[in-house]
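step=encode ok
step=design start
structure_in=
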């Protein structure tokens, strides 16, 4: 049986980054940048007011001083006004600072009397002025190759006037749930049958990585049907199958893949839950066979499928984020495989959630983090441990 790290490195060797593409910013969310990007404009781009108020010369705006209002400077145009000492220009948030002014007095700190204002506070130079480039300098790196493109990233790129961005590669995946017992939600459930939850789980996980789902199919444990379904699935960059990868007579996925000419590169990994995990290649398609138990499918997806998708998409960080927390209770692993305990982080402590068995979907649904305990390891309540955050 392969170790987790060996399985992971074999998978990562077997998949390649997809070609980069230029996409509109509105399509780039959750993709990865293919290039380093530098600012072509400073932010703020010009010196402007942080408040609605009056642009003044600080040294002539002592508390109680009357200032003559000589004009108005709104946002959106530059009226090219000049403020001499002892005078003021009415100004609005985001409007360019007139020449001569070195501070803005908040409207709330003034009293208007005809064409004059009286300032109620002391004014310091620079007050309520947003300096050109104080947030971001021209030429500063704003995005690195392999960085995840987030909502704030597309906003930053738009602030630079960019309409599109080069992304590291688009990945599409087919999902196939197998099993004689599984029924599509919404259909009638007969005795002995269960609703197919893995399809939804995998769809959400694949999309959460930023990849596209090309098809979601369900298939009975029947060779001819499996051949057809797998044959269809391997037209995508990646096929993620659940169920049918274990050792029972009805576990036909491996034999079906072989009959279609696929190579099986990994079967069975020292991981709990998820031992029967399978990885192979069918032409250029990366095929993942995950155990049917929902928790096993979830854990093996995060440890093996997710890094492969991220590599194909051009990400530089393939691992889940780790976070140090205090254990709320003792946990031990008496088994011979590393165990991923599902639990919840609340206020910096980690508490295992629900039943720790591979079918226990409710317990999994209450969790937000995974604690990996090595084989034979015991951890005491109060110990600080690193957990993987998957949310
Ligand atoms: P298998 O890996 O096919 O041996 O299935 C292991 C367990 O996972 C069995 O209890 C199945 O009923 C369950 N299972 C298989 N496929 C699904 C699915 N799509 N959704 C929920 N549970 C499943
Ligand atoms: Mg099955």
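sequence_out=
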């Amino acid at each position: 049986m392969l170790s987790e790290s060996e399985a992971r490195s074999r998978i990562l060797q077997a998949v390649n980054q997809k070609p980069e593409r230029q996409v509109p910013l509105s399509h780039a969310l959750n993709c990865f940048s293919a290039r380093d990007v530098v600012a072509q404009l400073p932010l703020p781009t010009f010196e402007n007011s942080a408040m609605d108020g009056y642009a003044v010369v600080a040294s002539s705006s002592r508390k109680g001083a009357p200032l003559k209002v000589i004009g108005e400077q709104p946002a959106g145009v530059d009226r090219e006004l000049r403020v001499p000492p002892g005078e003021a220009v009415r100004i609005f948030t985001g409007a360019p600072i007139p020449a001569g002014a070195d501070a803005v007095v908040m409207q709330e700190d003034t009293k208007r009397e005809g064409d004059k204002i009286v300032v109620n506070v002391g004014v310091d130079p620079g007050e309520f002025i947003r300096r050109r480039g104080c947030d971001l300098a021209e030429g500063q790196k704003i995005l690195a190759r392999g960085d995840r493109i987030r909502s704030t990233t597309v906003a930053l790129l738009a602030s630079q006037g960019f309409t599109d961005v080069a992304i590291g590669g688009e990945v599409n995946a087919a999902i196939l749930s197998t099993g004689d017992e599984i029924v599509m939600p919404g259909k009638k459930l007969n005795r002995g049958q269960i609703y197919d939850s893995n399809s939804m789980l995998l769809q959400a996980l694949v999309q959460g990585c930023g990849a596209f789902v090309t098809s979601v199919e369900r298939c009975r444990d029947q060779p001819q049907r499996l051949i057809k379904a797998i044959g269809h699935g391997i037209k995508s960059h990646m096929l993620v199958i659940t169920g049918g990868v274990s050792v029972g007579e009805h576990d036909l996925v491996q034999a079906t893949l072989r009959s279609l000419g696929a190579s099986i590169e990994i079967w069975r990994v020292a991981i709990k839950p998820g031992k029967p995990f399978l990885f192979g290649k069918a032409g250029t398609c990366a095929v993942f066979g995950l155990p049917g138990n929902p928790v096993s499918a979830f854990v093996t997806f995060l440890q093996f499928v997710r890094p492969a998708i991220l590599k194909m998409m051009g990400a530089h960080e393939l691992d889940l984020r780790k976070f140090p927390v205090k254990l709320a209770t003792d946990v031990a692993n008496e088994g011979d495989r590393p165990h991923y305990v599902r639990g919840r982080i609340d206020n910096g402590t980690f508490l295992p959630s629900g039943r720790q068995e591979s079918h226990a979907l409710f317990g999994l649904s209450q969790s937000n983090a995974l604690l990996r305990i090595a084989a034979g390891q015991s951890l005491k309540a109060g110990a600080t441990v690193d957990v993987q955050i998957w949310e």
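step=design ok
step=annotate ok -> The longest helix spans residues 294-313.
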